[in-house]
Amino acid sequence: MEKVGLELEIEDKSSEDGKTSFVKIHAPWEVLATYADVLKIKVPFKVNDIPDNSEMPMNWLSTPFRLPEHIMHPEPDFFTAPFNKSKSDFFLIDNKDTFFPPSTRNRIVYYILSRCSYFRDECGDKDKKGIKRLLNNSTYTAAFPLHDSRYWKRSRDANCESERFSLYKHWAGFLSFFKEQPLNLVRKYYGEKIGIYFAWLGFYTEMLLFAAIVGTICFIYGFLTYDDNEWSKEICSEAVGGKIVMCPLCDKKCGYWKLNSTCNSSWQSHLFDNVGTVFFAIFMGIWVTLFLEFWKRRQARLEYEWDLVDFEEEQQQLQLRPEYETKCTNRKMNRITQEMEPYLPITSKCARTCLSGATVLFWISLIIACIIGVIAYRLAVYAAFASIMKDSPTTHLQVVGPFITPQLATSVTASCINFVIIMILNLMYERVAVWITDMEIPKTHLEYENKLTVKMFLFQFVNYYSSCFYVAFFKGKFVGYPGDYAYMFGSKLRNEECDPGGCLIELTTQLVIVMTGKQVWGNIQEALVPWLMNWWGSRKARSHPESLYSRWEQDHDLQGFGQLGLFYEYLEMVIQFGFITLFVASFPLAPLMALINNIIEVRVDAWKLTTQFRRPVAAKAHSIGAWQEILNGMAVLSVVTNAFIVAFTSDMIPRLVYMYAYQPEGEMNMKGYINNSLSVFNISAIPPANKPEDGENPFWFNSSITTCRYRDYRYPPGHEKEYSHTMQFWHILAAKLAFIIIMEHVVFLVKFFVAWMIPDVPSDVRARVKRERYLVQEYLHNYEVEKLKVQLSQNTHDECSCERKEILYTVSKTGDLLLF
User: Fold this and answer.
1) Nearest to 249 by CA among 801, 686, 760, 624
2) Which of 45, 283, 324, 437 pairs with 475 at a CA distance of 20 to 30 A?
């Protein structure tokens, strides 16, 4: 390290454990300037002369949400250019000690450490290098930049800015939840990669406010139209629902039941299954597009302001992973740099990729197997709940409580079990995903993160959403009818039927339990686990005076943030994004729940990063990476899933078809809908294997009841097409398919039109980028011209002096002139 110019300072004071020694590394100006040139770090060379027109006419409205000027410390806006050590006087260098911000300095030092050799064999052709290898073999226990102060008070050194204290006081505190984030200070202290994450999280939370408002209005609409729910009135009335006898919902253990026993679930379903649901599904399809397009504009502005334009090419070219350089012993010529570099043979790369893909498929298959197990649990336990919750004179199929039905009890318990399985599989798969990604030996840090992102997202997508997909698109769709029921894989478990109120309320239950459970558990885990580990790790030091507990010891006792620290934060938010887009038609309050969670999430992430973790090594990132494409894919998929939910999971289409095509002439209401939507079956034709056992039927059931009803559109017994689908069934199916096609085309056309109308890069940012490139060329040209003039002037002066000396020398030799 000393050979490359770094200055080392070994701390004399022993640590609390008496075993750990600390080595402090300093980078002088020459080292910083050299590697800033190598890494092409952009630095200011001229004050921005383009007028700023970004102030809004009514900007005073946002004043309560702003942080004070003395906290934000707005810096002058500069034009920047890649640093060149040989042209250091070209740049605006006022103070060499503060010219490079802290994040840039620690990034440069870590770049050196990652490539610094510590062993060379006799032949000298196999260097061992990189701080990561020394950390892995326990030569060093940790390597991290120091925080500039304690988070709860300012530094004693007046020259220190105490940025950590400012971040803790004005950013990490929950009472600041309504204030803007000091993103420039976050970027200055932690680097652009962490800054981009918090900028995206803040922007996502702001956009959720609009979705939450519209979703809440749709929910309120469903509540206000509660009394207009004609089909629920029919279900609950003794004249209609009280006289309709329904067929058993499972074999042997389920008895006959009356339709009015599902009165409560029918009313609950109306809160989410109404006309407002269709409107909200279309709105969310457009909202997703607006969110992604406006984020691109916000990201483009940050790219320019934080000097990240064209950064990806630099990263791909310059920053190879030390693990890649170490493990790849073969070398070949890089066509771009014309230098020899390590590479992985194509045969080895293909073999590793195939093994990785097979592992991912195995784990996805394991998830599907677990989901099938949960479905089998639902089928088996439903019969048990139905047998326990038998009808009685005082309660209708409900002895546990006035709102508990076998369907609801089964759905809630299955959702809780599914959530536990999800959490267990997540813990197991995280280790596997990291292992197989390491095995592939990605070339750059960006490639490593992208590969891991794809693996983790595919797994979590199946893990979190498969149960919701089952309830939304499979449950109740392949049931059959009395006398010809469908069974799960040929077993004795009969396929589940939907609640008479529809499957939408069950999808809502599943969504609420998994989404809420994940968010609550995630926040507790993120805040509590690091705090407990730090509390336990620093227990010995707490008994000593603070003056003996040095800054580097305090930082060493904190948790390491790790290279994948942000990865899990992005993954958590993207999974949440899927919940509020893919299945939002079943639960309009999902954006509101996400908004409340994210307001807490921003401050929890800020708090733990500022107080519970070591200061991470600063890294650059010009965007949110592969997550952008994942969000785009989920936005497209959400339009399809919501269209199918409204068409096939909701009862909206059958109701509209009944109102406009099968209602008695002259009437435009929903009277008679319930009776129309239920088919009739002759009880005597039910096979013995499907009939309830003795004692399972309710007290009111007797031999005078000869028929039962079930959810379907089939011809009644005695008809020439007995138990085959009626024309109304095919009309409804055609209407569902037509709705899906129309909704998808309308939403996609609006999405593409909005995306076309909104440019990805704001016009003022494009102008600034062009002006900056123009000025770089112009100023460099003028700089070189002036430098050449000075050099020519100096050369001319030197040549004249030489001529004069030669003349004097010649004259003096002739003796005609004396030299003075």
Assistant:
1) 686
2) 283
What pLDDT score does 61 carry?
54
Enter the DSSP assignment of 91: S
**Is residue 802 included in any domain, yes or no?**
no
Give residue-wise pLDDT tens across range 232-273.
888 888 888 889 999 888 888 788 888 888 888 888 888 888
User: Who contacts 128 (Cβ-Cβ below 8 Å, separation ≥6)?
Assistant: 117, 118, 119, 120, 326
**pLDDT of 48 above 80:** no
Spell out a b/e string for 636-675, using b for 16 or more CB atoms within 10 Å of the CB, else e: eebbbbbbbbbbbbbbbbbbbbbeeebbeeeeeebebbbe
| Distance set, CA 781 to CA 33, 38, 787 (Å) | 22, 21, 10
Residue with tokens 């088919």: 679
- pLDDT higher than 50, residue 367: yes
pLDDT band at 332; cut points 50, 70, 90: confident
Q: What is the pLDDT of residue 635?
A: 92
Classify residue 719: in a domain, yes or no: no
3-state helix/strand/coil string of 471-521: HHHCCCCCCEECCEECEHHHCCCECCCCCCCCCHHHHHHHHHHHHHHHHHH
Q: Across all residues in the chain, what is the average pLDDT?
A: 81
Q: What is the DSSP letter of 761?
A: S
CB 249, CB 382: distance < 8 Å: yes
Please name the residue that has the structure tokens 């993207």.
574
Do 580 and 486 share a domain, yes or no? Answer: yes
Query: Does 490 reside within a domain?
Result: yes
- Alpha carbons 467 and 375: distance in angstroms, whole number: 9
CB 342 within 8 A of CB 125: no
Nearest to 441 by CA among 451, 432, 431: 451
Predicted TM-score of the model (pTM): 0.86
Strand duo 678-682 + 484-485: pairing: unpaired
CA 1 – CA 231 distance, rounded (Å): 79
pLDDT above 50 for 402:
no
Parent domain of 25: 7-176
Last residue of a domain, one of 128, 159, 176: 176
Burial of 569 (0-12, 13-18, 19+ CB in 10 A): buried
Give the CA diameter of the chain.
151
Whether residues 569 and 479 share a domain: the answer is yes
Residues 429, 544 within the same domain: yes
d(CA 590, CA 100): 44
The per-residue pLDDT for range 684-695, each reduced to its tens digit, is: 888 888 888 887
Q: Are 188 and 305 in contact (CB under 8 A)?
A: no
Q: Which residues pair with 27 in a beta bridge?
A: none
Work out the burial of residue 57: count CB atoms within 10 Å of its CB; fewer than 13 is exposed, 13-18 middle, 19 or more buried: exposed
Please give the distance of CA 310 from its chain centroid, rounded to a whole number.
24
CA separation for the pair 731, 654 (Å, rounded): 9
Do residue 144 and residue 239 come from a single domain? no
pLDDT at 549 over 80: no
> Do 207 and 171 fall within a single domain?
no
Residue among 186, 449, 170, 161 at smallest CA distance from 302: 186
**Residue percentage of the chain with pLDDT more than 70:** 85
CA 654 – CA 661 distance, rounded (Å)? 10
What is the per-residue burial (b if ≥16 Cβ within 10 Å, else e) of 533-558?
ebeeebeebeeeeeeebbebbbbbbb
Residues 152 and 195 in one domain: no
pLDDT band at residue 101 under the 50/70/90 scheme: confident
Residue 408 domain-assigned?
yes
